[in-house]
Amino acid sequence: MKKISKFAYLLGLLPFVSYAQCGLECDPTSSAILLGGDNYPRECYLNSQMVSHNPDIASTNLLEPCDFAITFVEMTRNNLAATHTNRGVIHIALENYDSAFSDFNIGMTLSPEAAQIFVNRGNAFYHTGNYQMAIEDYSQSLELGFAGFSEVYLNLGKSYERIGNINLAERNYRQAIELSPNQAEAQNLLQGLLSQPEL
Prior knowledge:
This protein has 199 residues and is mostly helical. It contains 9 helices and 2 strands, in the order E-H-H-E-H-H-H-H-H-H-H.
């Protein structure tokens, strides 16, 4: 079948999205970074944006424009990486973690300097309980230029707390608050850490 020629835009960073501010127990990860596009890639992007705001609305139907774009739409390497990333965000919401990892890994191959993809793959690692790999991906996103984004530090803090490294968890929560003083989740998690009795 002949590919449909569509031009897709790589829109760059959108705001992080925080879920319920209930800490580690019911908030498996606090952010998704989305990359944009046009037509089918754009619809894929919009669907990934919706599920990042509300994972409960995720359905396999939301994957269809992503699948179509990846299969039939001619895109640049960066825009194809963006579409794989957006599809991966939807797969996380559907708890299709193997598919999410596949999309993020393809995206990284196509666009290895895209910090957003490392944040999203870090989220997938967090969801699957691989906190050390989540830490590595979040840290890589900082090295690639996300050092000014409080939510990456929030996710790092949560990952460090999960593996029992309280000092680094505290440091990252404080960094998240320094960058975003109204970061309520980081404030709540830091307060929880500081209120724990000394062992």
